Structures are given as C-alpha cells and as structure tokens.
UniProtKB/TrEMBL annotation:
One Pfam family of this chain: LGT
UniProt GO molecular function: phosphatidylglycerol-prolipoprotein diacylglyceryl transferase activity
Membrane-traversing stretches: 12-37, 44-61, 73-94, 106-126, 146-163, 280-299, 319-336, 348-364, 384-403
Name of the protein this chain belongs to: Phosphatidylglycerol--prolipoprotein diacylglyceryl transferase
Taxonomic source organism: Sorangium cellulosum (Polyangium cellulosum)
GO cellular component annotations of the record: plasma membrane
A biological process from GO: lipoprotein biosynthetic process
Database matches in InterPro entries: Lgt (IPR001640)
Keyword Transferase listed: yes
Amino acid sequence: MHPILFRVPLPVWTVPLLWVFLIAAGIAFAGAIGLLIGKNKPGAAAAGVAGVVLAVLASQFKEQTYTLGPIPIYSYGVMLGLSLVVGWYLTLGLAERDGLPKETMANCYVVTALAAVLGSRVLYILTNLDEFDSFGAMFDIRRGGLVAYGGFLGGFLGSYLFLRSHRLPLLPWADVAVPSLASGLMITRIGCYLFGCDFGRPLGETAPAWLKKLGTFPHWADGTLDHGSGSPAWVQHVKERGLDPASEASLAVHPTQIYESLVGAGLLALLLLARRRQRFRGEIFLLFTFSYGVCRYLLELLRDDAERGSIPPTLPEHVLLPAGLLVFAVAYAIGFSRVIRNDVARKVTQALAFVPAVALYLALKPETFGASTALQYSTSQAVALATGLAASIAFAIYYKAALDHPEQAMALNLPQSQPAADDEGDDEDEDEDEDDAPGDGDDEEGAPSEKRGAKAKAGDEASRGKRGSAKDGGRATARERGAAAEAPDTTGEA
C-alpha cells in the first residue's frame, strides 16, 4: 500500500522558531501602528495583543528549530480532497436542476464540508482519546483519523444552521447533498485502503487468492511516516495475533475499505435512480440514511481495527448482533416497505426482512449455554441503528402525507420574492386591456401572432383575454366569452 503518494522535493532547511515568532510579532506590531494611524482603535488593540502573544511565544521557543524538507503528499488527504471536488460539482448540479438558488447552495456546501470534516474528526477523537500524545496531534488529519458518521452528523448540523439563517428549507438541500456523501464514501475509502486503516477480520484458509492479496498490508520501511513502523493492520497483528515482527506483511484480512467503496458506488447509483420517481422532499435523504445504516452495520461485523469505539450494553454476540438486524427489519416494515403498493408483495418483503436476523442468530448460537463471546456495539453500529430507525419512521410520516397531498409533497417552499414582480406585471397588463378597443378580443383570437408583439407568453395571453372579457362586460360578444372560457387558467399553476 502507499500511505504517501509522493513527496514535493524541497531543500532541507532548519529554521529557528525564535526568528519565526519575532518576525510575526513585528508584522503584528506594524499592523497595530497602521491601524492606530487610521483611527481604528479596536483593530489596533487586537493586533497589539497578537504581537505580544507572538513575542511571548518567541521567548518560549528560542532554543528550538523546525526542519523544512520534502513535503509528503498523503494518499488519504488526496482522496479526501478529490471527494470534496467531486461532491461540489455533483451537489451544485443537482441543486440547479431542482431549482435551488445556486449561489446560496454553493455557500452551504462549503459550510457543510467544513462541518463534516470537523464532526468526523471530533467523533474520532472522542472514541480514541488515548491515541493522542499532544493537543496539536488532534488536528493532523493528513494520515486519516476521520469517522464517516461523525462527518454525516456534523454536516447535517452545519447545513441546518446555515439554511435556517437564510430561511431556506433543509430537506430539498439534503436530497441533493446525499449523493455526494455516497460518492465521498466511494473515493475516501480508497484512501483508507492505500493507508491501510479500517481493515477487516482475518480471512479464512479457503478464501480466494485474489482476495487474500487485496487484504494483505505491508510492513513499511523505516521512516515512511513520522510514527509507527508498518501499516495499522501489520502493527495490530504483531501486537495481538502473534505475527512475527520480521514479517513483511500482515495477515490476509477482509479488505473492508474496498467493500465500503463499492457500497458507496452502489448507493450513488441507487440515489440517482430514486430521484426519477421521487414522491416528496426528503425522500432521497431518508433513503440514504436507512440504506447506509444497514450496509454500515453489516460491514462493522467484518471490521477488526481497534479504532472504532464501543457503546453499551454488553451482551452475547449471538444476541446483540441479530438484535440489530431485527431493528432494521422492523424499521423496513413500518417505513420503506410502503413504496410497494401490491399488498402481497409488500408482506412478502416484510417477512423476508426478518430472515437475516434469524440466520445470524442460528449461525452464532453456541452449542453450550454461556460459551458465547460478549460484545458491545461499535460507535458506528449504534449510530447506524438510531439513524436507520429514525429515517424509517420519518419516511412513513412523509410518505403518507405525500399520498394525501401530492401537490404539496414536492414543493420547494422557498422564500417568495418573484411573485410580487409578477403581480405588478399582471396589473400593468390589466391597465393595457382596459385601454383596448371593444373589438380587441376578436383580434386576439384570430389575428396573426405578430400583431401581439412580444408583450407576454401564450399562457399570459389567455389569462389577459379572460380578464379583458370580464372588464368589457356587456360589450363582449358571446363568441369572445366562449373563447375566454376555453382558454387555460394559468393563475394557479405556480
């Protein structure tokens, strides 16, 4: 694997930190003087305080140096950046297609992406506090250390706060944003694979050779990274599974990173197809939440890395793990199975949803009582269960509302600014109609279209003809009133 794709060649240069902080302090003091001359006292005070802080830091680091050299470009960081770029174009393209304000959605994407990275890092830190030996190490994400569900929750919160401040609805944005989450899974998990983190349990002896090759992670050469001497799988197998430290590679494990990358590709295709038959705003978001929850729960059964965290209760594995599948089966029955309109087919799928839970229970059930291994849910499994169940309940509510009021289910409910201008235009059209001669109705019905000019579209012509007939009263002929009655009413289509 390749945790570092390449290094940017730079000459080795040792920099005294004392001079770095002194130069920065000098710039801050110069800025303070400039702001003071410009009579910006608050800004001058802030710059002055910054200069003092930097000067104090210079005194603290006067004996230390920092060595600059070739800059490593980490595979995970590259894949993370690529996923953000792909997500940008995908999200904004779907937003424009759905009629959402593109500029506002672009700003929302930036806020969401930053909140997602922050949330994924925070959840990783909370579940792996013993891994960090310094406060600064908590902010180094170049070598990985992000939890997908933390990113989803952080991005959701960031989107909600941003859209609420702009008085925009959340669900239309969520529908166009979740396909980029699926594409992000597809891309970033390749970065995880190249680094060697998020690996699975050891493969059995009967596993195919190509799968064993994919699931073997190497012992890195000394100096590959600043810390550690091998891929995470190799290190864990040496410590916990008795692997010979002289081994050049880890044990063959399930390449769960590739599995989840394929899950991301499948979810992306599913969401884009589901958009063609979308029934209500929020449906795509809820579909992703439930589907990814099921897939992530199952993938966690194969994961073996120690950096996942755990959440009580502690129960025998033949009880705990099937119970999670039972929750998903109930969630499907009360929620997403409603899209199947045929009663027989729906009941069949509801019954089949319980089969995996029963099968897993029978597979894990020990031969003797009390011989089962006690487990806890991983952090991601617990979040998957909670969000999957919540998504199913919300789906049932919104789906019923969509059946009762289909005309409202797909409404964007954006702040209305354009209709006011449209109303003014209608008033002007009415004034023009009042000035028309009594015979204008005949002209509108039979005269060539060029006599009408470019005043309005065909739908507006019919609407004005209708209003003109009403204003003319007794002057209108029976034929004019008949033509107006047959004209389509466009005033309620918006």
